[in-house]
Specification:
globular; alpha/beta; four-stranded parallel β-sheet; 9 strands; 5 helices
Amino acid sequence: TTKRTTTLFTAYEQFRHTQVQLAAKIKLAPFTTELVWLCDRYNEWLSRQHWRCPDAVTEFLQKFFDLSTERFASPLDWHTHFPSYLSAFERDVVFGACGSGLSSAWMKGGYANPPYEAFYLRRSLQWQLALQAAGGKSAPWTVFLIPIWDGHDGKPRWDYTNYLEHEDAHLVAKFPKGTFSFEHWKKSLNQGTDADNRGTANWHLGV
């Protein structure tokens, strides 16, 4: 859409003019080419296990918990009320990303809604707890949106939920299955219709 494209172009121009050496190193392409590459990178990524939280919810979390960074986002679906964001691919710096969600140092307060795959959920929680252990009370804090699935025996389906029992992790809210609805990432581009909604989660959701 025009609004998102304008946001991406502004970020691209800022990168081009302020990161001259890095732009040369990565062989920065014209804006339209970089935009096509961006869409190619995320076409499959965003359609797999990415469940986008509605803007109204993230805005509330940002204000209530004083958050400044979205830890897992993309230039295409970044909630722009967060001043900064981290993404999945290094080349996203071209469009304003501040680094990778799993390799960059997390600063200040942040919001994280990782891809709903065991690897990313486990690693993101491990990363936050490692920062907590290293930084103590001065460590950055993160508000996670975490799926909590029930296994066939009534136990959590994946072992990442064990980290929710850590002394530095606090479950402040839990949405029972069937009470929280997500958006398709196309909604952030104003391209989505009601048919593009991800729908209501059939699992519990922890905050």
